[in-house]
Amino acid sequence: MSEHPENLIIRAGGNPMNLPAFTAIREEINKINHPSQPAVNWPLIESLALTLFRTHGVDLQSAIYYTLARMQLSGLAGFTEGCELLAGVIVSQWDELWPPQPAVRTDMLDWFNTRSGNALRQHDYTPRDLRMIYRAERALQLIVDRLQQSDLKRLPKVENLLWFFQNTAKKLEQAR
């Protein structure tokens, strides 16, 4: 990855649907559910998302796709980096974040919870992962806290990811 998200100025972006970079990201993401299961180009998703963030700003859907790409490419560390980006934009720019519709935001975050949760639960964690688990837990706690303060009629199940990491940390701490 040539550019790290920590080198970007994070600002909320508008609707990316008509942007070529977002269209290309969606084409790759749609491969996940394709019957022939073609390979998803995760490095392309990561690169295009960073381009979108730099030129258009960060929207919720692109940030979720970026986080999934980082997780696929770098495992727990990538997931954690993506969650920290999500936490930053959700906590500081929730009111400006695209999409504005609460139900759509909830659906996106539930989709993220399911996709990332399934992959994360297949990983074998060791005490060496604790530092990264604590970082992911902190980012998820920030997200959950902000969502609980929002006007969402139904809260996304992001809390499930938080509980998973809290329980994983407890098990690893006891195994030391």
UniProtKB/TrEMBL annotation:
Residue intervals of the ImpA N-terminal domain: 12-113
InterPro entries the UniProt entry points to: ImpA_N (IPR010657)
A family per Pfam: ImpA_N
Full protein name: ImpA N-terminal domain-containing protein
